[in-house]
Structure formats: C-alpha cells, structure tokens
Amino acid sequence: MVRLIDKTQKHRHPEKRNRPDTPLLRKPDWIRVKAPTSPGYAETREIVKSKQLVTVCEEAGCPNIGECWDKKHATMMILGEICTRACSFCNVATGKPSAVDLDEPRRVGAAVAEMGLQHVVITSVDRDDLEDGGAQHFVETISQIRSQSPGTTVEILTPDFLRKDGWENCVIDAKPDVFNHNLETVPRLYLSIRPGARYYHSLRLLEKVKERDPLQFTKSGLMVGLGETKEEVMQVMDDMRSAGIDFLTIGQYLQPTRKHAGVDRYVTPDEFAAYEEIARSKGFLLVSASPLTRSSYHAGEDFARLRQARLDQVSGSCPD
C-alpha cells in the first residue's frame, strides 16, 4: 500500500500507547515469506522513494510486499497519515490529523498515470473530524484518476462515514469500479477490536451501495484468528449476502506490536479452504481466503475475475 503524505509528526493515541503488552505468538511456517529481493520490487521501491511516498507496506511489515511490489501494485492512502480512531488491530498512527491537502487528488492521479497502473486501490484513514468524513476527497481523487489515467479501474476501500448524514452517497455516485468497506471481525468482538465503529452501520453502508447502484461491485473483508468462532464467521457471511456483497476476503490477523490485540490462534490453510468453499456456496461472486489474503492483495487480477464471474452469472455458463 502506498500513501501520498507530507512529513508531519506522528502521534499515537493514548488508548493504544497505554495498552498492556500482549505476547506475540510464534508464526507457523505457512505464514512466513522470504525477504523481497526481485528486480521488480527494487524498481517499485525506487519509484516510491523518488516520488517521496510513504508506504503502509513497509510500516505494517506486510507479508505480501515482495510479491505486490514486484507487480507494481499500489494502494494509495489519502487524507493524511493520522487516524481519528484507535482500533486495536491497526498500526496506523492515531491522534489529531493535519488539514486536508487539496492538491492530493491531482498528485494521486498523476502518480497512477506515471506508474501505468491498470487497477488502483484508494483507501484512507478515518477522518471523524471532517463534516463529510473525507467523502468529497474520495470523489475528487476518483475524478482525477479517471481524467489522468482513463484506462485504470478504480477500487476504493473507505471508512464507514459514521454520523456523516448521507455523504457516502457522493462517493457511491462517483461510480468507483469496486466499493470496498471491511467489516474486519464478528459483531461480538467490535467493542475490543473496532470500538469506534458499529457493525450494523458498516453492513448498512455496503447495502446502500447496492440500493443506489446495483451494478457497482461491493467488497468486504474479515480477519480471523482473533477469537471468533466458525459459526460467527458463517453468520457474518450470511449478513454480507443479505446486503448484496459480491466479493469476500478472509485473511489471518497478524499482531503489529505487543500493544495491539493479540493473536488468539493461527487459522490453518485447510480451514481457510473450508471457509472459501462455504462462502462460495452462499453465493458470493468471488471469494479469496488464505492466511496471507489482504483487502488489496491481487486486487487487479481479482477485479478481472469479478467481472468475468458476473458475466458467467448472467449468461448462465459455469465458471472454470
């Protein structure tokens, strides 16, 4: 993931800073990856450095950085680097954000064009301090990408726009190719894992997308390994299907630091395969479930598969 930001001072939220240390579980072999060394990775790293970009990939120690950067996959994070919330699973800095950079959408569009991206994911921190929650900034960014790189498909991974009185409609009306908002975990764990959010509000946001634009693809993701049960995960799948969500991603939660929520357990590859089979039987157009799956992992390839799955559904042909 790549963020275009200025070099402001980071602040850690007191709630996150004062959490007691949680032991770090030893990672099993299936979650381990080799250090990135490919020429493609080095080339992307040079582009990132030359354009003075900051990457979530590096800060969060994403296990997929070598593979994604080798393919020049990029997720742009807009609206700064400081989040107004302090979710216990997330390593993004929290505190008082800086003013919105009004030139950022133009620069994001230019970066997408220069990097020759076929598919780009745009995400952001939560901006509860803004009247619109950052909705108009998403709209401007989508517009700039479409203007400067017309052939690029656009996927957005948005905050929940909690208490923002309909501003999410502006983002829906900008017609991104994929509207993604992650539920992250099961309802029972929201108070400890995602305390600033509301499960049914997030679910309703994705349902609104389908009501307003039935052809717009919707996507959501879950982390597992936080203490949820299989039955709870299956109930979330049913809730997602009731909201018309097309694409589900499920990945292993990895604890960023000892101050974050601990890993309850490492879910096995066989369990992920079972989750994928169950989800497909429930009617999702596309499912990606594996220990290393993340929201934007293989996003470009998955978008092509998502479009094909819809065509197959309409034509009645069987998928491969």
Short description:
With 320 residues, this protein is α/β, with parallel strands linked by helices.
**Adjacency order of strands in the biggest sheet:** 2-1-3-4-5-6-7-8-9
User: How does the helix and strand content classify structurally?
Assistant: alpha/beta
CATH topology: TIM Barrel
| Low-pLDDT regions | 2-14
Largest sheet: 9 strands, mixed
Distance between the termini: 30 Å
What order do the helices and strands follow?
A: EHHEHHEHEHEHEHHEHEHEH
What's the number of helices? 12
The total number of structural domains is 1
Q: Which descriptor suits the 3D outline?
A: globular
Alpha carbon gyration radius: 19 Å
Classified by CATH, the class is Alpha Beta
> How much β-strand is present in the residues?
5-15%
Name of the CATH superfamily: Aldolase class I
- Helix percentage range: 25-40%
Q: What is the number of E strands? A: 9
Mean pLDDT: 87
Supply the CATH architecture: Alpha-Beta Barrel
Task: Provide a descriptive summary of the structure in words.
A nine-stranded mixed sheet has the order 2-1-3-4-5-6-7-8-9, sandwiched between helices. It has one domain: TIM Barrel. It contains twelve helices and nine strands. The longest helix has 17 residues, at 299-315. Mean pLDDT is 87; it is low at 2-14. The protein is an alpha/beta fold. Helix content is 37%, strand content 12%.
